[in-house]
Amino acid sequence: MATIKDIAQQAHVSAATVSRVLNNDASLSVSEETRERIFMIAEQLNYKPSRIKRLKNENRLSRKEIGLFLWATPEDEKHDPYFLSIRRGIEMRCEELGIAIGKVMRGNSQPDIQPMDHLDGLIVVGSVDEQDISKLFRNKNAVVLVNHTEDLKGYDSVKLYFKQAVEDVMNHLFSLGHTEIGYIGGNEHIYKLGPDHKGQPVNDPRRVHFERIMKEKGWLKPEFVHTGEWTTNSGYEIMREMLKQPNRPTACFIASDPMAIGALRALHEQGVKVPEEMAIVGFDDIEVSAYVNPPLTTVKVYPEQLGKTAVQLLLERLEGREVPLHVTVATTLVVRDSCGGGG
Predict the structure, then answer these.
(1) Is the distance from CB of 64 to CB of 102 less than 8 angstroms?
(2) Is Transcription regulation among this UniProt entry's keywords (predicted)?
(3) Final residue of a structural domain among 39, 57, 75
(4) Does the reported pTM lie above 0.90?
(5) Does 96 lie in the same domain as 24?
(6) What tens digit of pLDDT does each residue of 40-63 get?
């Protein structure tokens, strides 16, 4: 059976160098040629083949450096943990694989955006204009889009399974007897780099599927559909305006938990009982949702999984996969007291 000493003799290096290379010692200063020669000789001598294969893979990954482009600002992440959790998932998976994040940039808060073509790949979180993405990184085969509203041709992407999520919400509300159902959500755009960030407006998929389902039932009322900013205050203000209308829905699907929490406050202030007079369903299942009064029925999403999946897709691309993939991550409806169907 081959030993480290045998490998060292054929590679013309010390046994200590072989040991450190085969253990992927990052502090070792040795040429890439020497590393490859040591791994090649170890394979030829059949030195612990399964371990060598794993170590070669780890060594190769440890030399990869990717970029991360986020549209959300640190303030956005503070107010809505959804974006923070996506980033955390990316960082966790990169750490597990030994991939370095060489550069992090934020489109909504950095005026000077520099190309990242010197890196091995790029993950883009948020709906960024395709032309601007190509300016950031010219090789679309090494770019993964996370949470992009559109499915851009040639790019890998990962997003939530919005269609099923909204259908789960609506079917639950229908099962409780609701036909007069409202919608509150945020305004969506395809963002552009530069001073005027907001580019082309687009409909959020939650609104698209809500309107589709209600139209199919013949129950859609445009006056019950409202959009604003993705903030707690916006949810509060929209609900206040909705309550001034002569008619109001008996239930409301709200496309984010922070907006739903703002809407709940407006309902409490106006003395509208939840869920007796208006049922509320949110989206995200942020931690505080279980502790508001009443506890919020909501769609549980898995943003960390979005981030981890993005890293995995990028790794596959770097390893040679040629066909772009569009991955959807499932959600779960969490039923609590705000819609009247909780336990």
Answers:
(1) no
(2) yes
(3) 57
(4) no
(5) no
(6) 888 787 776 666 556 655 556 556
